Amino acid sequence: MDPRAQDVLLCDLCETDPLQYCCEHCDINLCTDCVSKHLSDSSKKHKIAPYHLHRKFTPKYSKCLKHVEKDCEMYCESCHIPVCSTCISSGKHKGHDISDILEKLGSKKQRIQKDLEELEKKIYPRYTDISSAVQTEKAEVETNYGKLATIADQQGEVWHREVTAIVNKRKADIVEIKTKHLSLLDKHADEITHRMTEINQVILEMKNILDTNDISLTSTYKSRNNEFNKLPPTIKVTLPSLSTPTINTETLNEMFGSLTSLSVTTIKVLLDEPRVTDTIDTGYYRLYSVSCLSEDQVWTRGYNKTMKLLNLRSKLLTSIQTKSGNAPRDIVVTQDGDLVYTDYYDQTINLIKNKQIHTVITLQGWRPHSVCCTAANQLLVIMDSDDLKQSKVVRYSGSTQKQSIQFDDQGRLLYSSGGDISENRNLDICVADCVARAVVVVNQSGKLRFRYTGHPSNTEQSFYPDGITTDSQSHILTADYNNQRIHILDQDGQFLRYIHCGLLGPYGLCVDTRDNLFVAERDTAKVKKIQYL
Asked: Staple partner for 467: which of 313, 411, 440, 508, CB 3.0–4.6 Å?
């Protein structure tokens, strides 16, 4: 029966009027008006008959490829092909699961109907939204890049004004120095002219004496040649120079400002139904932490002193015991692929490189709890005081303390005891404070941004966050041990959705480079790899 018989059955051609007839040859349902339209196609044979709601369905069997005279009335579930009765009796499908072809057809059509509804109602509208967003972004490109060009022009105008001011100042300095130079030369010329006038006067006087016989003039003559032989000092003025250093284009570009490269970020959407893709059996009595070395290898730590490196098939690749013999409190893989673990009772933070353990930090009065590696390849460590009354987050570069975060703006403690820690892509520091039953997020400077204390739908058990991690989309994921699920938040603390996936006691979390989530189940001691984006 036509699946639409559940509702008002409509004509297959116009899809508006109720059907009243069917063409048995063409297997099409028709209303009264469309019968003539259908019969107008003379290339095919037609047989119009009244459509009865409960009429017997006449199936159109496919012919068997091996036995052309036979219809395929059965379906081999093992071979995934339609088969005829001769195929079955031949023994070629002995032991295979055989089902009725009509039952298979019905289930297939149900699946097709379900897929059709999902495509039309869920998937295609998402593509429509994405396409609309792309078109909107394209429309904004001209405006945004125009703004960048305007900024460059404005910066150029500023530089032009500065360069013009410098040039005018240099030219003014040149005029001032030139005036001083000419003044010196004028003064020197005046002194020489005065001497020359005196010499000419003396020459005239001497010639008069030689032309006269006046004894008194001759007797009173005094020579001034020695005086005039002392020539005035020569003034040598060195012309000023204007240094014109070679312009370093690279330095000039740096001074002008830089244009960042085009940054492309792939936006991943959350799956409606996250799914477990792999399960790793760690063999621990209890499992607490997991940290990704790669997409198919993870470090784990449990209720003993041994840390294990396992692949997705649960194969043990490497195992390392702590230096002190204590169980590690937390583990993390660095950007260099080395393993860091905290030793709560030994009060140390240790680095494992080439299977050798190096104690990097030894604490006094504090005990290290959880640790994470930052984008800058530094360590963020949440630690408890020896009396368990205080907790703080400390940033280390190597063994050097760079930052300590403990109080909010009102001087109140930000953290209780214990919890897990992770750095988000926006450099926020996220802590799952299990004692306070809250996710506490501060910015890079240590200023409180928000606290997340669970979603109102948490009605079964109180919110108990333990493990925490972040992904490439700046989502914050925290394990809710009591309620057997993962909470997904955006970077501003807004709840997005849960991940259930049949989790039992989710405890530790980590995300690999492809945003696959790894969940350490405490009580089953299994690691589950989950695709949620």
From this structure: 508
Residues 6 or more apart from 448 whose CB is under 8 A from it? 408, 409, 414, 440, 441, 442
* Whole-structure pTM value: 0.61
* pLDDT attached to residue 59: 67
271: which residues sit within 8 A by CB, 6+ positions away?
Answer: 531, 532, 533
Q: Sign (positive/negative) of CA torsion 334, 338, 343, 349?
A: negative
Burial per residue of 400-416, b for 16 or more beta-carbon CB atoms within 10 angstroms, e otherwise: eeeeebbeeeeeeebbb
| H or E stretch covering 287 | strand 287-292
CA–CA separation, 439 and 435 (whole Å): 10
> Is the model's pLDDT at 352 over the cut of 90?
yes
DSSP one-letter string for 150-165: HHHHHHHHHHHHHHHH
On whether the CB atoms of residues 311 and 332 are closer than 8 A, the answer is no
Burial (CB < 10 A; 0-12, 13-18, 19+), residue 209, is middle
Closest by Cα among 339, 310, 346 to 325:
346
Residue 533: CA count within 13 A, CB half-sphere: 19
